[in-house]
From TrEMBL:
<dbReference type="GO" id="GO:0016491">
    <property type="term" value="F:oxidoreductase activity"/>
</dbReference>
<dbReference type="InterPro" id="IPR051609">
    <property type="entry name" value="NmrA/Isoflavone_reductase-like"/>
</dbReference>
<dbReference type="InterPro" id="IPR008030">
    <property type="entry name" value="NmrA-like"/>
</dbReference>
<feature type="domain" description="NmrA-like">
    <location>
        <begin position="5"/>
        <end position="237"/>
    </location>
</feature>
<dbReference type="InterPro" id="IPR045312">
    <property type="entry name" value="PCBER-like"/>
</dbReference>
<dbReference type="InterPro" id="IPR036291">
    <property type="entry name" value="NAD(P)-bd_dom_sf"/>
</dbReference>
<keyword id="KW-0560">Oxidoreductase</keyword>
<keyword id="KW-0521">NADP</keyword>
<protein>
    <submittedName>
        <fullName>NAD(P)-binding protein</fullName>
    </submittedName>
</protein>
<dbReference type="Pfam" id="PF05368">
    <property type="entry name" value="NmrA"/>
</dbReference>
Length: 303
């Protein structure tokens, strides 16, 4: 299988923008999918305009006309029905590879994670939908393939907004369970690189749930590096993850968005260690962990 023409939807988002940047710097021929009434603008980029409701036949025709080989979805993972429509269109139009909106902090293949964080179930529903299509032959005998990529916390982005339980601007560290739990996280540009590697290795990555990270650290290791780079001591606040979840999960279940973010933040530290996990793909994709202090220097400079 060879991939030449790649389409991305969600190209202005937190993840979509760096993935688009990586795609545009690659050897692939890149298109961005944009809804009719979207105000997003993509300079010097080929745009495929589709109906707002993602009508399957219309999207399929647009993908077919541009001979799209791979579709990358970086809209919110909670948008299950939109993803299903895009997948149906990809199936209908002869697209070879779909990457759904998996990514992110937590593992939707883990039962405990889905129990703690119901929003992760949507990602599993989409992956199961892809599984249901992978053995179906299309006209001409071709099949749709997929790759789901799980990245852990968006690491550099997470340092700017408290996702890693560290308030860099306020010089505070909220240490979960002593701060000694190893967790996986990926810088946004690194995720872009991982997407490119998957497209460059279509056979090796076919129909797989893959895990990657650019950093594999504890909060204490991260805090030590932060204090070294900034030259400041951070206030240390110890937290018990189970007790914190007991407080914020009921609020999340009542629809509190901030509480949802807090549950994701906690669970993305205590239950997201990919290093020994089946499907850990850094070696498969030729990706190396990045330098922690370099990442922190860039983040602190931007802040």
């Amino acid at each position: 299988m060879s991939i030449t023409n790649v389409a991305l939807i969600g190209g202005t988002g937190t993840l979509g923008a760096p993935v688009l940047k990586a795609l545009k710097a690659s050897e692939f021929n890149i298109f961005v999918i944009n809804r009719q009434t979207s105000k997003s603008v993509y300079p010097r980029t080929q745009v495929i305009t589709v109906p707002d409701d993602l009508d399957v036949d219309a999207v399929a025709q647009a993908l077919r006309e541009k001979e799209i080989d791979a579709l990358i979805i970086t809209i919110a993972g909670s948008h299950v029905e939109s993803q299903k429509k895009l997948i149906d269109a990809a199936f209908k139009s002869g697209v070879k590879r779909v990457m759904p909106a998996e990514f992110g902090s937590c593992d939707s293949a883990d039962d405990k994670t889905n129990e703690i964080l119901p929003l992760m179930k949507g990602k599993k529903v989409v992956r199961d939908y892809l599984l249901s299509l992978q053995h179906k032959e299309r006209d001409g005998g071709s099949k749709l393939t997929w790759t789901s990529l799980v990245t852990g916390h968006f690491f550099d982005y997470g340092l700017t907004c408290g996702l890693l339980k560290l308030d860099v601007k306020g010089r505070k560290a909220y240490l979960l369970d002593g701060g000694k739990i190893k967790f996986s996280g990926s810088n946004l540009d690194f995720i872009g690189k991982a997407v490119i590697k998957i497209l460059e290795k279509p056979k090796e990555s076919e129909n797989k749930l893959l895990y990657v990270h650019s950093h594999h650290v504890t909060q204490l290791e991260l805090l030590e590096a932060l204090e070294k780079v900034t030259g400041d001591k951070f206030e240390r606040i110890d937290q018990d993850s189970e007790k914190e979840l007991e407080v914020v999960r009921p609020k999340m279940l009542d629809g509190d968005g901030h509480a949802t973010e807090e549950v994701v933040a906690i669970w993305g530290v205590v239950a997201s260690d990919w290093k020994e996990k089946k499907g850990f793909a850094n070696a498969l994709l030729g990706l190396e962990e990045e330098d922690l202090e370099d990442t922190i220097r860039k983040v602190v400079a931007d802040l």
